[in-house]
Design a protein that fits this description.
single chain, 437 residues, alpha/beta, TIM Barrel, 2 domains, eleven-stranded mixed beta sheet, two-stranded antiparallel ribbon, 16 helices, 15 strands, 19% strand, globular, binds pyridoxal-5'-phosphate
Length: 437
């Protein structure tokens, strides 16, 4: 129990009530970061398009204000003046500075959003299954074994990441929201699809829900024999670890995790960590220990983001610390083709180098991680390397997941392109079409 004693001061100081900060606090916070008036205005302009929300823990325990705005955690949560095309930012800044009517600002922001590919990889058209009377709100089913569910009460987060690929969910574009609250319908769908062995609660962040609400979603699933695992996608360990330590429902939540194990299923806690600093506070160590004590397995994942974690040392350090704390590194993702992708994208060739450089110097125990992986329309595509074959420089790739499961694990080739940032930028090598075309 020494761990608990050591952690006690940090836990107490972090044990305050959750307090969110939103766009209305931006001017005050960017002033603290040392930004001048024009940059503060441009930041607010970007925040009319993309969501902004953070909290007291991120502000006081994670951000290094002396290094802001270059600090990686600052960049992880704060809109940046140059994240969007300069003429868009100029137009929105102008509207804000002459205090244009709300509706006019919102219309201009909406127009910018629509040019940012708000729902990538055919999420709205291709992944939402029809069942019974029609589509099931909040359910996506892309790969045979796993359904994604977006519980209505889980469609926000303790803080938003600037690079979020689900950003469109959080900015009040009603027709872009995915969310469901009909647990009976979810159960019926799973029962009608015996190939489904795993359900992934996602959002938003499933851990924004209080225990009684999450229990209403999870409990009816515990008696479904076909389910082997219940997954929870969450950034709470990074943004609000108090959820498992000092929040009023902490004990009840951990008990719910335990019950998933008692029902013979694995509670797979899919933790999003972007930067090693998120692992430093002692309250995180304590939260990890408590979650693991329930029998849950914590797996870790994050995208590779320019100016935040595009450095092999950052990934090497994250994977080692995660493994030391008993977590299992799972995925390194490529930033998706949506929102401010132009700003955050790392070319695939460079992403592969970052991955390999970080991966070659960790113990085998951390080499459970896979990547860099693109969650693209046909599936999750991993960049395995770069080779010279028959006098041609090529990318070697494979599907980790695919709509067509026959293609999983089979290598394929694309012409090398140092600038390519996404699957759509690649051309097949040695053949006319890619295997899924
Ligand atoms: C990543 C993903 C999953 C889960 O894939 P795993 O490889 O099993 O982690 C399921 N559905 C969708 C749509 C996904 O993008």
């Amino acid at each position: 129990m020494t761990l608990v004693n050591d952690a006690a001061p940090a836990v107490r100081s972090a044990g305050r009530k959750f307090r969110a900060f939103t766009a209305k606090h931006l001017d005050e916070l960017t002033r603290r970061a040392g930004l001048g008036p024009a940059e503060r205005l441009a930041t607010r302009a970007v925040a009319t398009v993309l969501p902004f929300r953070t909290n007291s823990y991120v502000l006081e325990e994670l951000i290094d204000w002396s290094a802001a705005p270059d600090d990686p955690i600052y960049r992880l949560v704060f809109p940046l003046p140059d994240m969007l095309p300069a003429d868009d930012v100029a137009r929105l800044s102008d509207l804000l500075s002459r205090q244009a009517p709300k509706a006019e600002i919102e219309a201009a922001a909406h127009a910018v959003r629509m040019r940012l590919n708000p729902h990538p990889a055919g999420q709205m058209e291709l992944n939402i299954p029809s069942f019974g009377d029609g589509k099931i709100p909040g359910l996506q089913h892309k790969y045979d074994e796993t359904v994604l569910y977006f519980p209505k009460q889980g469609q926000t987060c303790h803080a938003y990441c600037t690079y979020c690929f689900r950003w469109a969910q959080f900015v009040g574009e009603p027709d872009l929201k995915m969310a469901g609250d009909d647990t009976a319908q979810l159960r019926d769908y799973i029962l009608a699809h015996p190939e489904v062995t795993s359900i992934l609660f996602t959002g938003g962040d499933a851990m924004i829900m209080g225990e009684p609400v999450l229990r209403r979603y999870i409990e009816p699933l515990l008696e479904l024999e076909q389910l082997e695992s219940i997954r929870i996608g969450t950034k709470s360990l990074a943004y609000w670890p108090q959820k498992f330590v000092t929040d009023p429902d902490a004990e009840a939540m951990l008990r719910l995790f335990e019950q998933v194990g008692e029902a013979g299923k694995n509670l797979a806690f899919m933790a999003h960590f972007t930067h090693p600093r998120e692992l430093e506070p002692l309250v995180v160590t304590e939260a990890v220990r408590r979650i693991r004590d329930t029998g849950a397995i914590i797996r870790t994942q994050a995208p590779l983001i320019r100016t935040i974690n595009d450095d092999p040392a950052v990934w090497n350090s994250m994977w080692r610390t995660q493994t030391r704390l008993g977590m299992v590194p799972y995925y390194m993702f490529v930033e998706r083709d949506t929102g401010p992708q132009d700003y955050f994208a790392v070319p695939l060739a460079q992403a592969y180098e970052v991955f390999r450089t970080a991966y070659k110097d960790v113990a085998g125990l951390s080499r459970t991680v896979r990547g860099p992986s693109m969650s693209a329309t046909p599936g999750k595509v991993c960049v395995d390397g770069v080779l010279e074959l028959h006098g041609q420089k090529v990318f070697v790739l494979h599907f980790i997941q695919c709509r067509d499961s026959d293609l999983v694990g089979k290598p394929f080739f694309a012409k090398y392109d140092p600038e390519a940032v996404w699957l759509d930028d690649l051309k097949p090598a040695f053949t006319d079409t890619f295997p899924w075309q």
